[in-house]
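Chapter review: from sequence to fold.
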Amino acid sequence: MPDHDAAPEPLRKPARPAAPAPAAQAPAVRASDQERDAAAALLSDALALGRISADEHSDRLEAVYQARTRAELVPLTADLPAPEPGRALADPVDAEPVTALFSKIRRGGQLPVPPHSVVHARFGAVVLDLRHAVFTRREVVIEANSFCGKIEILLPDEAQVYDTGTALFGKRSLPGKTPKGGADGPVVRITGRSVFGHVRLMRNFKWPWREWR
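The token string follows.
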């Protein structure tokens, strides 16, 4: 006979289904040079249109060229509108050549440096002070042509400079000191021709009064 005094067996709770295994995280996609340049061009357009300040542009541009993945590029331009289809991005500066003819021209301050610029000194002098300039690209090209004149380019301490220009009865002087900041600084490539003239590049400039002579 069944034992009516025995305690009933406790009800068993249904087993919980096993939690699904977490999905494997997609690997970060590396950004290409073309994608970094596209982000830099968008920042330059925003600077030209007054959407961001020169200081903000400089900080974002540095981050763009340090970005390794696409995900790191996204927040740098996420608050900027995409350019209208078919509209070219604005040039942040006047692309007209700087020409000193029997005169002296000095350019300095927080001027935006375009990807390519041209400087002429003919029986005159040009002082191009880039120490506080805003580089719109990580690498820029400056075509410096001097005919019986002088061109002085003052470079930031961290800039890397390469001169591929030529001289005929002229002179081209390069800074000899190693740039500060290693390979993180802007790359400035100097081209052009010096004929009976002088193209002088300087870094770690210690005597600012000399640039006004």
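Two observations follow directly from the output. The longest helix spans residues 33-48. The helical segments are 33-48, 54-66, 70-77.
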